């Protein structure tokens, strides 16, 4: 499918989605969010795809929701259209792993979009922030919720109340990102991680994603029970037999997602 605000490529079982509004530092407008939601759903449907990488440009992953698009909206407008909710729900329905590869600005909705992914790999140029407070509003798609769970109350309050930016080193130290690499190596690192994930059984990787995400939604006791049951259920797969046989036979496993 042809898109105008994103570029989508599938290669070697990895779907690379690149945000592409260079004149606006990839600010998230209605078209971009709608195209992104469609591309994410297509990646979920596409049997060739086993992992997704979401990225932006060298200067910006995304500098937030499009301020020019939002500036004249009323409460009734944003309440009625439930700004970006259907699109973010569509991204949340993707069961395959998604990595965010972030260079440059990831601000406001851009930081929130990165946090919707399963983990974030950052370039040393990355800058994260929730500067909506400077616009007389606040975060609206996860900046007070996902960020708090990722980096804790004190830092989340600091980021949201002052609007300050966090560099890549602090983001890694705080648990917002999983790795930081030199900017030139960002895409190699992210695609390499995606490739590694794509080599596993898709049943395992989707089950792992579901189980880790469950930890956000439930108590430890219920989460551990959920994990144990999913773990048990994987013994019903051919990939479990293959993975364990390959280990014993000292060879690489050939997973078939069954
Ligand atoms: C619309 C944006 C934009 C944005 C940048 N641009 N961010 N347009 N919405 N969020 C546009 C600029 O207007 C400019 O266009 C071009 O991109 C380049 O930006 P500059 O400001 O000239 O670049 P620079 O001086 O390098 O500054 C980079 C920046 C700054 C620090 C990232 O652009 C900035 O502060 N942007 C806004 C960040 C922000 O407040 N984000 C939160 C948005 S609210 P022209 O045409 O002038 O060249 C949000 C709510 C989420 O995200 C909740 C959703 C439900």
From TrEMBL:
The keyword Heme does not apply. PROSITE patterns: ENOYL_COA_HYDRATASE. It comes from the Bacteria. InterPro entries: ClpP/crotonase-like_dom_sf, Enoyl-CoA_hyd/isom_CS, Enoyl-CoA_hydra/iso, Enoyl-CoA_hydra_C. It catalyses: a (3S)-3-hydroxyacyl-CoA = a (2E)-enoyl-CoA + H2O; a 4-saturated-(3S)-3-hydroxyacyl-CoA = a (3E)-enoyl-CoA + H2O. The keyword Lyase applies. Pfam families: ECH_1. GO terms for biological process: fatty acid beta-oxidation. CDD domains: crotonase-like. This is enoyl-CoA hydratase. The lineage of its organism: Bacteria, Pseudomonadati, Pseudomonadota, Alphaproteobacteria, Rhodobacterales.
């Amino acid at each position: 499918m042809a898109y105008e605000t994103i570029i989508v490529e599938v290669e070697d079982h990895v779907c690379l989605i690149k945000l592409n509004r260079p004149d606006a530092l990839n600010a998230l407008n209605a078209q971009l969010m709608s195209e992104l939601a469609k591309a994410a759903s297509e990646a979920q449907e596409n049997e060739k795809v086993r992992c997704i990488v979401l990225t932006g440009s060298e200067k910006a992953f995304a500098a937030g929701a499009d301020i020019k698009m939002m500036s004249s909206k009323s409460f009734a407008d944003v309440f009625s259209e439930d700004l970006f909710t259907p699109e973010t729900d569509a991204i949340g329905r993707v069961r395959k792993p998604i990595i965010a590869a972030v260079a440059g600005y990831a601000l406001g909705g851009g930081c929130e979009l990165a946090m919707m992914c399963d983990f974030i790999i950052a370039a040393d140029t990355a800058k994260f922030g929730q500067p909506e407070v400077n616009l007389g509003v606040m975060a609206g798609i996860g900046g007070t919720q996902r960020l708090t769970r990722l980096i804790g109350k004190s830092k989340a309050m600091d980021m949201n109340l002052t609007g300050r930016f966090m560099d890549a080193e602090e983001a890694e130290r705080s648990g917002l990102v999983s790795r930081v690499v030199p900017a030139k190596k960002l895409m190699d690192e992210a695609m390499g991680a995606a490739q590694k994930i794509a080599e596993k059984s898709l049943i395992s990787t989707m089950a792992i994603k579901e189980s880790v995400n469950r930890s956000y939604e439930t108590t430890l006791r219920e989460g551990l029970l959920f994990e144990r049951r999913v773990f048990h259920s994987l013994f019903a797969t051919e990939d479990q037999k293959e993975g364990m046989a390959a280990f014993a036979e000292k060879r690489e496993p050939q997973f078939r997602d069954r």
